[in-house]
Amino acid sequence: MTKISFVAALAIMATATACSSKTPPKTPEKIQQAITQKRGDEPVKIIKPAKVADPAMVELGKKLYFDPRLSKSGFISCNSCHNLSMGGSDNLKTSIGHKWSQGPINAPTVLNSGMNIAQFWDGRAKDLKEQAGGPIANPGEMGYTHELAVAELQSIPGYVDEFKAVFGTDKIDIDKVTKAIAAFEQTLVTQNAPFDDWLAGDDNAITKEELEGYELFKSSGCTACHNGEALGGNSFQKMGVVEPYKTTNPAEGREAVTGKDADRFNFKVPTLRNVELTYPYFHDGAAQTLGQAVDVMGKIQLGKAFSPEENAKIVAFLKTLTGEQPAFMLPILPPSSDKSPRHNPFN
Amino acid sequence: MTKISFVAALAIMATATACSSKTPPKTPEKIQQAITQKRGDEPVKIIKPAKVADPAMVELGKKLYFDPRLSKSGFISCNSCHNLSMGGSDNLKTSIGHKWSQGPINAPTVLNSGMNIAQFWDGRAKDLKEQAGGPIANPGEMGYTHELAVAELQSIPGYVDEFKAVFGTDKIDIDKVTKAIAAFEQTLVTQNAPFDDWLAGDDNAITKEELEGYELFKSSGCTACHNGEALGGNSFQKMGVVEPYKTTNPAEGREAVTGKDADRFNFKVPTLRNVELTYPYFHDGAAQTLGQAVDVMGKIQLGKAFSPEENAKIVAFLKTLTGEQPAFMLPILPPSSDKSPRHNPFN
Questions:
Q1: Interchain proximity B326–A325, CB inside 8 Å
Q2: What is the pLDDT of residues A189-214, one digit of tens each?
Q3: Is residue B257 part of a domain?
Q4: What is the pLDDT of residues B187-223, one digit of tens each?
Q5: Which residues in chain B are contacts of A288 at CB distance < 8 A?
Q6: Sequential DSSP letters for A285-313
Q7: Residue A11 included in any domain
């Protein structure tokens, strides 16, 4: 049973106030329209709003995304490593998994991830639905099994009712679970960044320095890979084009999926949307600041040594890509029943 | 920068719909008034709404409550073990702390905790503000130090601005941090449970079985300790009055604070508000279901062996104590700066 409480009302009002103090509140209709791109010849495109086909499935997926009962410990949820309070990432070099396992690679942001050509740094999952099943059963991440996770959900009356309402059957399976999680993740599009407003024709949306940073970003060749709506996510590229990238991280990139030598150290180009929030950077999380990331990318991908002034301008531009963060009510999860397994994280 | 996005708008609408389908939406004013108790002679009282003196401080405290940067790992927040999606608890026997440390005792719910006579099972913290500092610096919980946590917050421009707005100074200290967290926690009052509606005079708010359960609860003596607005939290009582409580948990209760033999195994009586959501039960988390908890309490506190029918009725009554869960927008945390320390959970 979820009801809106007074605290809720207050919180909503407070949040709304906080928001409107930053930006005039928009009606859903207004926001729903993608702003149209006046500067049509730019390699960067205004990000399109999320299409929400089934709001009830999105709400179910949101609960599952926040539910640590999908992990063996009962402690780790999707949101633990793709934290929607922190740019859809965990801001750690590599993530913490079951029993404090050290993750092999930096957790990419879930924000705008529905636009990616594929999921994971090596693209081994074709879409969000396929990705969502991975961490649940990965011994070093959520450490559970699909069978146990589904059986546990099936023991929770509130979930059984909600799956029935969304899928027309109370028989839960991993396909429905990952479909609902993906439907929620698909909605995590961050619109109306200052740079989108500039693309829409508002000359005052970004500063002179930010604009100069964008011009440098283009003239230096960054847009060869970081282009389109997400400024990335739409191709695999070699890490270390001009000079090899030095890292202790053993990830081999795309080669692990295709088996082709040519794909060695090819990684999915990360989106630059909200990059101000998704530190540290690169698949190994080795770059702690945007300045470091810009410096390394210039050297190893473009053979360019940016001056401190150039670096600062590009960083200033990159910060104009921070969009509206997903804003929704904290989901309240249906309680387990007497039949539900109890988690013991310590054995 | 937080703005309300289309997804946000959708989410709010969806939630609002979900809520209003359960209960007619109330205006803040209506909710703000505590419903008045018609059945005035009952030992259980209608829970009073939270008094919110400083909404801006509550909003700051909410961010801090959800911020894992208050932990050494950068992974554990207050909400990790007092999860507001799960009745303000972690639903684990004992909690998981820094580097997967096993907690010594069951994490009590934060819901309605502002009404407690003191904080922690042994009451060693006099109030929420004093409690909030504990886990941050506890090596087995968040594992950080107050100095490092404060220095990190001081390196985050968004927090510096918000502390300045709330406290009139941009000099952050642990006193302000814990004051803000406590101000947020103070708002976590769960109103309008079905049983409150019954106390207000609505005969149809609870079923015949639930009412019989309440009558049994009273006549059996449960209300000797579980009374008032929170049905507990207002006294320390011995665990094992009629027969000793058998547990492998070494906690000695109140004696650890007072040093008095008489306080051995005295624990703060837990609230029964939202008890349906806060399994497992007792300071050692040994009772996995409400049925087990009622059975054990009957035997060791009251010398009563409840029949299965009696047990079921009391459990049915206890489930009428689930109130409106806190409902607010997921907080968006201000990003770290280049000066902020980066967390390394693995060394």
A1: no
A2: 999 999 999 999 999 999 999 999 99
A3: yes
A4: 999 999 999 999 999 999 999 999 999 999 999 999 9
A5: 338, 342
A6: --B-SHHHHHHHHIIIII-----HHHHHH
A7: no
- Is the residue at B232 inside a domain? yes
CB spacing of B31 vs A22 below 8 angstroms: no
Residues A229 and A301 in one domain: yes
Contacts A8 to B, Cβ<8 Å: 324, 326-328
| CATH code of the domain covering residue A304 | 1.10.760.10
Count of CB contacts below 8 A, A vs B? Answer: 273
**SS3 state at A4:** coil
Average pLDDT over residues A255-272: 96
Q: In this structure, are B92 and B202 located in the same domain?
A: no
Annotation says B229 is catalytic: no
pTM (2 d.p.)? 0.92
Among A residues 115-134, those touching chain B with beta carbons less than 8 Å apart: none
Q: Bigger pLDDT: B287 or A22?
A: B287
- Count up the domains in chain B and report the number: 2
Give contacts of B56 with chain A, Cβ < 8 Å: 14
Q: Which domain holds residue B228?
A: 190-319
Is A331 near chain B, with CB under 8 Å?
yes
Domain-located, residue B181: yes
Interface of A with B in 212-251 (CB under 8 A): none
